[in-house]
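Hi P.,

Sorry for the delay on this. The queue was packed all week, but I finally got your sequence through. Input first:
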Amino acid sequence: MISLTGLATYSIAGIIVEDLIISAAVFLAVMAGLRVFEKVVVLRLRKLSQRTKTDVDDLIIEIIDGVGWPAYFLIALVSALQFVLAPPLVERALHYLTLIVMGYYGVKAMQRLIDYGAKKVVASRQEGEQVEDIAVVHLFSTVAKVILWAAALLLLLSNFGFNVSTLVAGLGVGGIAIAFALQNILVDIFASLSIYLDKPFQPGDFIVFGAEKGTVKHIGIKTTRLETPEGDELVVSNKNLTEALVHNHKKMERRRAVFSVGVVYETPLAKVKRIPSILKEIVSSQPGTELARVHLKQLGDFSLNFEIVYHISGNDYNSYLDIQQTINLAILERFGKEKIKLAYPTQALLVRKA
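Then the structure:
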């Protein structure tokens, strides 16, 4: 019969029983400690984080809370095996298992950081942009996660002893071929990123580029959709928009209006001299307008041409047309009272007798 002292020195598969007992005790103690940490410490930290204004501590708690029992089991197992002389095969398997588990939870933590950054970017935009922002941010956060997982996989294979240089070279050649095949799509995607970051226009803005114009309705990954003044939908590639000279009328704080009035040459000089003051009076009397200048600019082919320049606060095109219409009607009424005739194209035929 084996005594307790003899049992402690007895070995199983080359491992002393006493070491096995100590190792098992360490394993159970570490598992219990980690369980207490999860149920008590993390829970209290979560309650404390709810009292703070910042959400960074919430992110940290979420990352810690995301570590599950596989990681706890591995930590306890590694701690326990420090007290026994494990076979090389077991140590190698444990090394690979540690790399896999650490890599997995490391990538998951980085994913949470990416999601946190994406939410911050979306929250920093205006409320009217939320739908568009979520779509764009989701796309690029997904791309970042794919790159993250690919990098983690290559790093893991490298630690497993695989020659990843050949694999990366092959992926590089294949990536170049795919990039050439998807060149137009990729250009539009990066153009959408440029539009999203630079914000040259937003949904609801009225823009003009080249011979086209319309109100921005949707900014997508590949195209932007506009509603033209005629009411139809205009679909434009993001690449064309980023390369074009775009006029954004929504960002206009003050509109500059220029128009001309022509009177006949038969108008008496005294009335011609009074016309600038009449025009100044009419324009200045309109609410929301700021007169810049009125001049007899040109002695035209068939008229004396006066140029009027004024400014209107705001960017509403309909308001501008209403003001211009009121000014035109007031000019017709006032010139009628003053008996000042507006000019129109005429030709005089002179016949000379020999």
